[in-house]
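Query form — protein Reverse transcriptase domain-containing protein

QUESTION: What is the three-dimensional structure of this chain?
INPUT:
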Amino acid sequence: MRKALEGWGGGLSVGGLKISNLRYADDTTLVAKTGAEMVDLLNRLDTVSREMGLYINQAKTKIMIVDRSRELQDVHLLSQYDIVEDFVYLGSSISNKGGTEGEIRRRIGMAKSAMTQLEKVWKDRNVLNKTKIYIVRTLVFPIFLYGAESWTIKMADRRRIDAFEMWCWRRLLRIPWTAHRTNISILKELKITQRLSSICLKKVLTYFGHIVRKPSDNLEKLMITGKMEGKRLRGRSPIRWSDLVTKALNTTITDALNHAKDRDRWKQLCGGISDGREHHDAQH
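ANSWER: The structure tokens for Reverse transcriptase domain-containing protein are given below.
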């Protein structure tokens, strides 16, 4: 990769740092501003790889175009590749719209499947509810929570997460949907004090603090504090991941960054946000 990038000036600038590729094990992501840039980078990588007896698997290569302004004119240069709007990368679904609604829905579907496979456990009257709750939290919820640290959770997503959680508890108790049981009564019966959506939010806040305490040249930190190349479009901007943090704490990004530098203080703030005292929409 280093040899392929020699003399190449493309990529996207974040906080003054040029980003041209992201690598994890044998999964490589290339970043370019235009179709021509991407073709050039792919050709460079292909040439260098062949010299070492390696080949790019075109069938496994996916191209994602992020272009809300619809200004890119040379995307046709990439037509020989599979152009997708979303794909699964390192276990999480990535969308060219930047949101995480699709990934949240996908994770709910996977977790529901796991819950259904444990049907014999939920039907077994010899298994205590306390044990069943433990099983849900160790075998079902972790499937849903994979990658939750990176989610941008909107209010609609939070309601969807709460609905999924209640589906699990009703399934555990074998309560039919025709039964007139309120969510709050079910939560009280099972002694649930922390909602699943609050756990998601706590993961976001904890990860934010972890990133802030990294060195100033860390890529993850630059994504939060660095200025992105380009300009914002007119109209209302999509919610950003950092917006979730500032909204949860009712503060500015500057204050959030300062608070997060103190690990103990930040841990206290995170605990206060998701301490389980909230039961929004629980009565429905």
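ADDITIONAL NOTE: The chain is about 50% helix and 10% strand.
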